[in-house]
């Protein structure tokens, strides 16, 4: 991890991003290095039931128990983001990334790992940046980089995560939480 790595932090879209999956998006960065970056958009639930795609996982998912669009890359694939509490060892099929955040192999039988997890969210696709691309977007002001809280990835209310993350930041960044969705109507 380089000195400028955003691994484990949140990217919060600035109002400069006006459309698409990243508009008012909150991205948990899973990896950021010389080879690029990958993350998951935490606040884009989609109208797709987990049970229809991955039988057995829905009953273990954090609420709302629906699929989330993790980003625009590989929408035909699914990633399972989980929280492993404390210093508990990783169960089989789980790979810790940082802190309590881990990925679960969705081919693992859900019942064999679910009891060891504190949160589970299923994502269709992910956010990806080629080498240098995220650094360029940061330099042009597309993202605020902030520390996350453990509950961010598994929030019951993803629809207001963008505002909640900004509200807990120091001023003047916290003021962005009240930026109108359409400034032309203000």
TrEMBL record:
Domain of life, source organism: Bacteria
Family from the record: Belongs to the UPF0301 (AlgH) family.
Alphabetical list of NCBIfam families matching this protein: PRK00228.2-2 (NF001270)
GO cellular component, one term: cytosol
This protein's name: UPF0301 protein H9L10_03105
InterPro entries: AlgH-like
Provenance organism: Phycicoccus endophyticus
SUPFAM superfamilies membership: VC0467-like
Pfam families tied to this protein: DUF179
